[in-house]
Hints:
The complex is a heterodimer. Chain A is α/β, with parallel strands linked by helices. Chain A is built from four helices and seven strands, in the order αβαβββαβαββ. Chain A has a six-stranded mixed beta sheet with strand order 4-3-2-5-6-7, with helices on both faces. The radius of gyration of chain A is 31 Å and the shape is elongated. The termini of chain A are far apart. The mean pLDDT of chain B is 84. Chain A binds chain B through residues 19, 22, 26, 29-30, 33, 36-37, 39-50, 53, 68, 108-115, 117-119, 122, 126, 133, 135-136, 139, 141-143, and chain B through 15-16, 19, 22-23, 26, 29-30, 33, 38, 45-47, 49-55, 62, 99, 102-109, 111-113, 115-116, 118-120, 122-131. β1 (40-45) of chain A pairs antiparallel with β2 (51-54) of chain B, so a sheet runs across the interface.
Amino acid sequence: MALRRKHASHALNEPPQVMLTDIAFNLLIFFVVIASTAPEDGRKQNIPRSEANAKTTNQTSQNIEVAITKGATTVNGAEVASSELMTRLKTMLSGKSRPEDRVVLVKSTPDTSYEHWIDITGVVEEAGGVVTLQMEENKTVNVR
Amino acid sequence: MKIKRRKLEAGIPTVALADIAFNLVLFFLLLAKSQDDTYLKWNPAMSAKVEHVGQSLASVTIDINSKVYFNGQQMGGGELAPAVKAALGNLPAGKRTVLLKVDKSAPAQVFEPVIEAISEAGGDLVHILAEQKK
Lengths: 144, 134
């Protein structure tokens, strides 16, 4: 004869549902915090302190000058297509090993967009140049 | 015959204490995040070569209206360099990262002085860009 348990209860097997809202709330906050502190993507550029810039200003005449306007880019006064910029700069920088020789002065017109500027400076860096900004009022800022 | 009165045990429920502690930790974590600039609108420029740069104490944003913000607060041209310098303090090289978030349409006359100011403050510049998918 099969015996039946007298006080069969299912209550003990069920998880307590009172805490479910607490858990949901904690999870929500946790993911909000994680999302707001997610690492961002970008490109590093080492800028030497301003005191160091004085040393490079005397050498500006020997360095390559890249001028960026809204529609065109010139290297030492000659217009260069964006596709040819890399090879042109690589050729000009070949044989120059010292960082001060690899300085590329980047001069942009006031209306040059950031998107265009970041493209060109990216090419200069990839070609091995040390980007140096030439500001309107003859201030220079090194970007390496 | 004496009938014993049942003692009522009125204790503080300690089950939720861990939850409360966790919530407090998260609350103070959020409060400590003083450089909230998530409300600013800017469209990042695209670049094929980007890397993860992590977090930083200082963040400079140029929004779609070409206004400059430092850690979420709007700044004038001359105020930026001292503010960045103060935020970075005496941090050693390599930990002086300044995130630069510039709207892709911002003109050079706006972003170049910002780069100059970060240079003056001795910050390690990192341009925040979006990855260009091939």
